[in-house]
Amino acid sequence: MAKRNRARSTSSRQKQEGRKARYSGGHSSGHSGGQAAANFSNNVPRNGGGADVYTLHSVNSHPETVYGPTRMREPLEARTKSQKDYMCAIQSHCLTFGIGPAGTGKSYCATAMAAEALQNGRIERIVMTRPAVEAGEQLGYLPGDLEEKFSVYIDPFRDILNERLGKEAVEYHLRHGRIVAAPLAFMRGKTFGGDTFVILDEAQNTSIAQMKMFLTRIGEGCKVVVNGDVKQSDIRGGNGLADAVRRFGGLPGVCIHEFERDDIVRSGLVRAVIERYEAD
Fold first, then answer.
1. Residue 192 has pLDDT above 60, yes or no
2. What pLDDT digit, counting tens, does each position of 198-255 carry?
3. If pLDDT is split at 50, 70 and 90, which confidence band does 5 have?
4. What is the dihedral of CA 256, 183, 78, 249, to 10 degrees?
5. Residue 20 pLDDT more than 80?
6. How far apart are CA 54 and CA 37, in angstroms?
7. Alpha carbon of residue 232 to chain centroid
8. Which architecture characterizes domain 81-278 according to CATH?
9. In what order do the strands lie in the sheet with 179-183?
10. Residue ranges per domain, the chain?
11. How far apart are CA 87 and CA 97, in angstroms?
């Protein structure tokens, strides 16, 4: 009987050590076992000798090792006096036209202000649009459906939003319809409400009819920004941006802000390139 009891006790210890070995990476004791057990937190039982419980490190236990997209935490500040005047115009007017050469910060300032307003709860939705006009190439040659084709046009907006809000927040807002990006042709029949910040970019590629259609979507209290450079139009015939600037100058609630060549902040090279092209 004593031999049977000793045999049972030995068998029980072997099973228990086997369980420990499985939890600790295949070693029940010694230096190797301790090293393997170091891969777990709380490898010493908390109840002073009861069941052996080992807790794996969760992903969130080391947040500094988890990749997170960069996000601009500094408040938005104008880099030039012209940018400051432009941003003040957007704040105080229902409709703002930002016209001028590339690299002056028209799109960046407007999109960053929209992101800030969404984050602070001053608006409920951002609508970003632009005409689907190709600069010498055909949209139909791009792979994918219409949404995938148009995403190429929206990438500059997305980069700014990712910088200001963070990539995960932007993806969330896109899924829930708080950030909407669509071709200008899809704006027909819509009404932009008072909780919406709307940006029409590359407006120099709109026809007069398209610009009229877009501007008649504006509802009470809506914030609308129209940006473009008339000198870089890719369409033939009447230009919607130039026509609107001519028509609406001096209209209450509307501001037309003009950027100059000296306001270019993208790079000194861009300024020089534009100077050479305009010299002809």
1. yes
2. 999 999 999 999 999 999 999 999 999 999 999 888 888 889 999 999 999 899 999 9
3. low
4. 0
5. no
6. 9
7. 26
8. 3-Layer(aba) Sandwich (3.40)
9. 179-183, 125-130, 196-200, 223-228, 95-99, 254-258
10. 2-65, 81-278
11. 11
